[in-house]
Amino acid sequence: MKNKEIKKLRTGFTTGACATAAAKAAWMLYNGEKAEDEISVTFPDRKHRSIKLESAEMDEESRTARVSVVKDAGDDPDVTDNAHITVKIAPIAARKISDSDFTEDILDSSFVLRGGKGVGLVTRKGLPVPEGKWAINPVPRKMISGNIASCKFKTTGLFLLEISVKNGERIAKKTLNPTLGIKGGISILGTSGIVVPYSNKAYLKTVTILLDGAKLQKLGHIALCTGGTTAKAIGKMYPEIPDQGIIRIGDFINPAIKHASSLGFEKITVACMPGKLLKYAEGHRNTHAHNVKQQFGGLAKFAEQLGFTGKTVERIRGSATVREILNFIKPDPALQMMNDLAGKALGNFFNWTGFSNIEVVVFDTDGKTVTKKSYL
């Protein structure tokens, strides 16, 4: 039954993986290699996967290579599905590097990583990319560097590597980028390179099957994790929990924790990041961005109750992310806020389940512990 359920879900590739495929193919084309219909890309899990190329051309006169990939998001309801992602590689003079660009030294070459038309620019703090930089996230940048290095060309010089997305500015209006202060286009994203569909009944069924399996193995302590970073971090915190007991629940906190509590586990740990914690504290049962638009009026009122000044309260109200808020609040008050939010979240979990041996562990994007709190 488990295999049948999982086979219904077709995974896809992130914008970061598609940009990596186009970048690697463009670099190979620039160095005289023939373009094939698809290219093998190394992912963060060190596995190799093939991604189809839409087009590839080398202009010898201008020494410019261009490769396009059409994003296939699999069965995930992703607004960037079918987006045309193009990478251009060409020589560039050092004087043409802008403050918004990233620079990467890869083997004997140096690359200027730039967002072209349809790729957004970060205009506020609190995101994985610094303010003023192109919205090309850390893992995609690392994937691009690693895959270009794998070509092992000894070409020297300074090269522009520009990523553009056809109709990216229009697509971005359907994403959270305008709210997050990312202007002009979409973000080049991905932590694993893989889009795993989860916004459907099949994913919930898979979570149920995994929880049932953990119970069959007579595990006493399990962890419900929102994603890969929290799963990895909780595994380090609790090495005694086997992989089968660390279950990724995505945005489905309510059905997951209700089913887990009904199975009679001795202890349930919920591992999340600050943004999800706020949604848990507010009582949201499904935390997907399409279901819950993050707003901070409630958090601003809560901050006021904790004794924050009017200026800070208004700044909280106007923020785009919880991470942004934590960046401008001093450490001690920020910890107090996280602890109190964790307490509210635990109260909601108890109200949903009647189970009291529940713990919340909050991690940052680097997998470091922000706070840890138990209901008991």
* Range of helix content: 25-40%
* Helix-strand makeup class: alpha/beta
- Characterize the overall form: globular
The domain tally reads 2
Instruction: State Rg.
Output: 22 Å
Instruction: Give the N-terminus to C-terminus distance in angstroms.
Output: 37 Å
Mean pLDDT: 91
Strands in their spatial order, largest beta sheet:
4-5-6-11-8-7
What would CATH call the class of the largest domain? Alpha Beta
Task: Explain what the structure shows.
The protein has 376 residues and is of the alpha/beta class. The chain folds into two domains: 13-195, CbiD-like (2-Layer Sandwich); 201-374, no CATH class. It contains 13 helices and 19 strands. The protein has helices at 2-7, 15-30, 138-149, 168-172, 177-180, 201-216, 228-237, 253-262, 274-281, 297-305, 310-317, 322-328, 331-353; strands at 12-13, 38-42, 48-52, 55-59, 64-70, 84-91, 102-106, 109-115, 118-119, 121-122, 157-165, 182-183, 185-186, 194-195, 221-225, 246-248, 267-272, 358-363, 369-374. The strands form six sheets. A six-stranded mixed sheet has the order 4-5-6-11-8-7. It has a five-stranded mixed sheet with strand order 16-15-17-18-19, sandwiched between helices. Strands 1-14 form a two-stranded antiparallel sheet. Helix 2 (15-30) runs parallel beside helix 3 (138-149) and helix 6 runs parallel beside helix 8. The longest helix has 23 residues, at 331-353. 39% of the residues are buried. The model is unreliable at 1-7 (pLDDT under 50).
